[in-house]
């Protein structure tokens, strides 16, 4: 298939024009970044794993009635998704204290929170994706109060799904972030889960050992990121146990 017109390239993905109107081809790169791209590396096979894992989670959400932009996987690195207008927020759901929450509030990492906490960050790499309140969101018109009610509902439904699925394979969902998009059916607007759900966007710890199976492996130099992501994929049955994830040859 001929290479499509590039729409956008981010730190971990490239977006191309889709084959039909209203669609986008989402390509998963092997690039790994941390600390707002201050730390960078290319991890062979990472894009393949994230493509397959995001497909697994998005398909599961669609099946339980949580709408997403995912349509189908095209190949090992690409998936077809519905075009949508992204709300400029990162929606973070926290079940246990970790990362910036532990630093901000002085809570020991791994402490279970009284209930899931939902936070919002304004999507702007130049500003470091700052934490914002619903007052900021309303004042600057990034989303309406009704939108935010729907965003909160979607975030908590995704949390219920992810925590249940991962608990079943011995993995704790410490926290995760998602993005939300707007789609229009005539004059009717609805919100859907967009971007990706993968170990790049979640903190995942083994329930028994506390071993980290997410991007913190790269952030903190804890070992092989590919091995960690492959372990998540194997537990979920996304990839056979004997699969070796290697970088495929791209055909233009």
UniProtKB/TrEMBL annotation:
EC number assigned by the record: 6.3.2.6
Record field: catalytic activity: 5-amino-1-(5-phospho-D-ribosyl)imidazole-4-carboxylate + L-aspartate + ATP = (2S)-2-[5-amino-1-(5-phospho-beta-D-ribosyl)imidazole-4-carboxamido]succinate + ADP + phosphate + 2 H(+)
ATP-binding recorded as keyword: yes
Source organism superkingdom: Bacteria
Any one GO CC term of the record: cytosol
CDD domains found in the cross-reference section: SAICAR_synt_PurC
Enzyme class, first EC level, given as a word: ligase
Domain named SAICAR synthetase/ADE2 N-terminal: residues: 6-235
GO molecular function terms attached to this record: ATP binding; phosphoribosylaminoimidazolesuccinocarboxamide synthase activity
Keyword annotations from UniProtKB, A to Z: ATP-binding, Ligase, Nucleotide-binding, Purine biosynthesis
Pathway noted in the entry: Purine metabolism; IMP biosynthesis via de novo pathway; 5-amino-1-(5-phospho-D-ribosyl)imidazole-4-carboxamide from 5-amino-1-(5-phospho-D-ribosyl)imidazole-4-carboxylate: step 1/2
Gene Ontology biological process terms from the UniProt entry: 'de novo' IMP biosynthetic process; cobalamin biosynthetic process
Matches recorded under InterPro entries: SAICAR_synt/ADE2_N, SAICAR_synt_PurC, SAICAR_synth, SAICAR_synthetase, SAICAR_synthetase_CS
Residue ranges the record marks as coiled coil: none
Family according to the record: Belongs to the SAICAR synthetase family.
Protein name (Swiss-Prot/TrEMBL): Phosphoribosylaminoimidazole-succinocarboxamide synthase
